[in-house]
Amino acid sequence: MQTYSHWIAGEFRAPESGEWIDTIDPYRGEVWARIPAGNVADANLAVAAAKRAMTTGPWSKLTASERGRIIGKIGDLLLTHVDRLAELEVRDNGKLMAEMRGQLKFASDYWRYYAGLADKIEGSVMPIEKPDMLGFTLREPVGVVLAITAWNSPLNFFALKCAPALAAGCAVVLKPSEFSSVSSLEFAALTKEAGLPDGVINVISGYGGDVGPALVEHPDVAQITFTGSDVTGTRIYEAAARHMKRVAMELGGKSPNIVFEDADLDAAIGGAISGIFGAAGQMCTAGSRLLVQNSIKQEFTQRLLEATRSIKMGDPMDAATQMGPLSTTPQYNKVLEYIDVARAEGARLIHGGKPAEGPGIQGGHFIEPTIFTDVSNNMRIAQEEVFGPILSLIGFEDEAEAIALGNQIAYGLAAGVWTRDIGRMVRVSKALHAGTVWGNTYRTYSYMMPVGGMKRSGIGREYGIEAINEFLETKSIMISTAATPPRNNFVPR
Ligand code: NAD
Asked: Active-site positions, per UniProt (predicted)?
């Protein structure tokens, strides 16, 4: 069993508390590594290292192009080590090896994309209306960034937070989830190999409730970028407000996946399945509310059931496995509770509904792919995020009802629309309150397309050029160019 340490100021460092957290392999149900239980002292060390890096360290003196070259090398090194790092992630979160490998290749591209953007962050010169006056803007790094992330995609989140922050010239303290910190702690050392100066990225692990508030409330943290539940996000937002810190929030969802009668049904079934049973439903963007037009609901349900019956559960390292275990014990228990809630509310179970059994899945947190029908949109099972393989099937009559049901939710992260009618596709996409709408596809990402939530799903955007804005301040500079500068008086010019 391996023991990991914090990564602070360019070196591994044991926790000040001398205490460790066991990290569990969700497939085998066994402890496989130990990570530091961070506390206030660790938080202070990490923030101090980031502040030094930004103020007096070599990072603050690099040109934007030099920063970009280092960020690009981090992406290259991630790709070189993709198999090893993906394996660490699978052991920590139980997701499929094939998915984690793909995700890390994506993360490598993500680093390279922001490498290219580092020296394209430009201010403007304004043609201001005042004579003998030059007015221009500078775009400056916001300061020390705190990144706190969820357990489902650790190194992807590492890239989503750190690549644009570094491109903007910031230094970062990253606190990954206590359930899956190993890959981030190991990868942090590779950033040094890429030439990143000490203290620009610091990674500390620990329970959110122990180390989180110390980081969030630290006076030298300027910006908090968070990925996790809306409950924790609200807590952090409130604390940040007390200190007037900036926040970016990537939170939960309860996304509608809407199938119209004219859709390519084979494709829509594939999208429905991958939208809720991919990653065992542990996706913020899970298409957990499947809205199907009443005219095709019966046929669609039959075909969906057939496809669901063939899902192969098993060892996430096995290339043939389609669905792995739930990542954590609390998550496993929460999903089982929601199955009871749905039953009690009168939803009709038509597939799954209990822990999965069978050869190759003993000891893990497996739950059968579960489908409820006769769900009404105001039931808890249709309104609350489960973050597991539980699908709610809801019928609708026409386009207007589909849009109304789609939007009748506190969240606004993603949505899917399946139709061959291009006009309808555009109308419905525009009408849905969601940060991302997928048309005739689901779970498709490009590092160039902004991702983020409306309503309770979050604040701000990751991916694409927009993500850089989260880490920049705009400074306005106005300089008199007059040979004899005007003498000030008591009326603004
Ligand atoms: P969580 O909110 O329980 O924890 C997220 C992080 O917050 C962890 O690192 C945790 O240690 C930390 N934390 C907990 N309490 C804290 C506190 N008081 N102060 C500071 N930090 C604290 O979320 P989770 O269970 O790890 O992840 C699942 C959630 O994340 C789901 O709601 C899912 O939708 C969401 N998510 C969103 C996105 C997105 O991009 N929108 C992506 C993945 C996951």
From this structure: 250
